[in-house]
Structure formats: C-alpha cells, structure tokens
Amino acid sequence: MPVSFNVMELCSKYNRIAEAINPKRTYFFQSITGSVYTQQWFEGIFKTCWMMSGNVAGRGSCTPYMLRHNFATQTLMRWVEEEKNLDAMIPYLSAYMGHEDFSSTYYYIHLLPERLARYITATTF
User: Fold this and answer.
1) Is residue 81 classed as helix, strand or coil in its secondary structure?
2) What is the pTM of this model?
3) What DSSP string describes 27-96?
C-alpha cells in the first residue's frame, strides 16, 4: 500500500466531508472555484508551512520538487545498496510517484553514477 492506513483513513474522512459539501466535485482536492490547485498555489502554501515550522526562506530552503527529487534518488540509492534489480523495481517507484511512463523515473538514475557504476559492474559479470 503506497500510503499508511492512518493517511487512508484521513483521506476517506476528508472525502466524506467534501462529498457532503459538494457531491458533484471533479477533483479530490478541489479549489474553492472548483478547479484544480495550481502549482503556484501549492508552492506558496508549502513555503508558508515551511516558514511557520521555523525554517527560513533563502539558502537551504526547500521546495516540494526538492522533496520529491530527494525521495526518488534516496529510494534508488537504497535499492542499489540492497542490490535490488532496478529494472524490476522502477515500475514500483514510477507508479508511486505518479509518472506516466518509466522514462520519467529512469531520469533519476543518471544522478547516481558512482553507485550505479558499481551496480552495473556487479550485475553484468
């Protein structure tokens, strides 16, 4: 399961409330206008939450993309260290990240050249 039981439970509760308020909504998380939230809206909210949590903007600040990017590369690095078959595992990461095709997920592999060189050497001989 890609999300924990607690998160699923919260999403189910949210869905029941949202359905009661707007039974014909198009999106799961829908803006007040009925449209999808924009990337700019999400980044603005994220920045506000980031700063409210005691972090500061500027050098060392974080973005949703950075968190997503870090998740993908850390997952791939862990799989390399665990000597998992990346070709077999990429579909799982791809689905989890919501990529439409595997090439979007394979993009992250080029970021791991040193560890991948060891992986490729170990698996090709």
Assistant:
1) helix
2) 0.63
3) SSSB-TTSSBPPHHHHHHHHHHHHHHTT--SSTT---HHHHHHHHHHHHHHHHHHTT--HHHHHHHHHHH
